């Protein structure tokens, strides 16, 4: 997909305009007919790093500053942008970012469930890889379910990746997601002597991951743009490094941008090694919470497809809260088909649906 969008030019028509997308008003902006389109790989202190003529002999990295007419529209990794000025890619050159192309998808979050401020995470992602460890740190069901709801809301396909399966069997955790049509990849470190993939993790230790899961992820990512989300310590950098061959944690010159050290708190698009053109991973360090203040409650329920059919038996306008009279979801949870995780699934849905009403919801972003 990334490939196609990359080739857009000035004459392009809009495909699937995203009503959530942010676009400068058409009326009063100059045409910028000499603009070139690039893919944003990272944003750091008001400087936008874009990659131009991707996968061609003229491929180059261009740093840009935003034009005033963009006002405060957020520009994020994954965005395709129009650049004018010095787009040669010379080390000291600075281009001007004059336009954000229409976005296919937009992953947004709020700091917590009551904060209405939109934080745009990445644009044009096809997939969201939610990384949780089987243990150390303990997996948080609420975090997974929040991420699934945000992905559903954004029209992005989720993938669940469980790491550290060598530390604990993730079967009980996976029981929650058994009824979902969700790709699940289970990763573990490789035992001595097994064929593994060496990856340097953020703390500098080298983890050796079993090749199977990394290979499976590699296959799922091919040709697509995937955001990777996970709490600190789950092994996200280890995985990302295994897939990209990057060693950003060790500093030095960045594999994509070719420039200096990247601050570790901003999202960064990295190329997946040995993958077809357009295969990108967008790493999102430092996202600790995933507030759902911007997500339509209806989409929260839609992201629980195992509970959705039963909700058809609820009274009209049912809030599905624990005290909602006649809510059919209680009956669902007690049925054998709901499985051992049925009650937990319902509780998780209720936490997410009810979060916006709670006074102390500041905490809920990290549930
Ligand atoms: N046992 C085991 N340890 C792992 C596995 N994957 C990663 N680790 C270790 O877990 C620790 C954390 O890994 P990181 O990749 O740095 O975790 P992270 O999620 O990127 O954390 P931050 O860098 O803090 O965001 C490191 O010591 C890794 O070597 C695994 O599959 N099994
Ligand atoms: Zn109900």
From TrEMBL:
GTP binds at residues 163-166, 230-238. Binds 1 zinc ion per subunit. Zn(2+) binds at residues 314, 318, 320, 327. CDD domains: YjeQ_EngC. It is found in: Cytoplasm. The keyword Chloroplast does not apply. One of several proteins that assist in the late maturation steps of the functional core of the 30S ribosomal subunit. Helps release RbfA from mature subunits. May play a role in the assembly of ribosomal proteins into the subunit. Circularly permuted GTPase that catalyzes slow GTP hydrolysis, GTPase activity is stimulated by the 30S ribosomal subunit. Monomer. Associates with 30S ribosomal subunit, binds 16S rRNA. This is Small ribosomal subunit biogenesis GTPase RsgA. It comes from Arthrobacter halodurans.
């Amino acid at each position: 997909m990334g490939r196609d969008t990359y080739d857009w030019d000035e004459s392009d028509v809009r495909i699937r305009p995203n009503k959530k997308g942010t676009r400068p008003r058409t009326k009063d902006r100059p045409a910028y007919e000499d603009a070139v389109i690039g893919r944003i790989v990272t944003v750091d202190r008001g400087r936008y790093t874009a990659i131009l003529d991707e996968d061609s002999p003229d491929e180059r990295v261009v740093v840009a500053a935003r034009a005033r007419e963009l006002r405060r529209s957020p520009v994020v990794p994954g965005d395709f942008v129009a650049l004018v000025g010095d787009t040669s890619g010379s080390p000291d050159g600075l281009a001007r970012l004059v336009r954000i192309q229409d976005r296919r998808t937009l992953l947004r979050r709020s700091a917590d469930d009551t904060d209405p401020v939109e934080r745009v995470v990445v644009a044009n992602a096809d997939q969201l890889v939610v990384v949780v460890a089987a243990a150390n740190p303990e997996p948080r069901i609420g975090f997974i379910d929040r991420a699934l709801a945000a992905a559903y809301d954004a029209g992005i396909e989720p993938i669940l990746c469980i790491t550290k399966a060598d530390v604990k069997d993730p079967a009980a955790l996976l029981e929650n997601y058994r009824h979902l049509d969700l790709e699940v990849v289970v990763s573990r470190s490789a035992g001595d002597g097994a064929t593994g993939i060496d990856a340097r993790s953020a703390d500098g230790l080298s983890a050796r991951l079993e090749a199977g899961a990394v290979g499976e992820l590699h296959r799922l990512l091919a040709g697509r743009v995937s955001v990777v989300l996970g709490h600190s310590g789950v092994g996200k950098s280890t995985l990302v490094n295994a897939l990209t061959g990057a060693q950003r944690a060790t500093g030095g010159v960045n594999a994509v941008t070719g420039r200096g050290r990247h601050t570790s708190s901003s999202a960064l698009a990295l190329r997946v090694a040995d993958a077809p053109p357009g295969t990108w991973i967008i790493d999102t360090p430092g996202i600790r919470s995933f507030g759902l203040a911007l997500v339509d409650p209806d989409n929260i329920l839609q992201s629980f497809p195992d509970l959705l059919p039963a909700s058809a038996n609820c009274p009209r306008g049912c809030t599905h809260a624990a005290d909602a009279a006649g809510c059919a979801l209680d009956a669902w949870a007690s049925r054998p088909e709901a499985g051992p995780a049925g009650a937990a699934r319902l509780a998780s849905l209720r936490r997410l649906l009810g979060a916006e009403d709670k006074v102390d919801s500041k905490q809920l972003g990290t549930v």
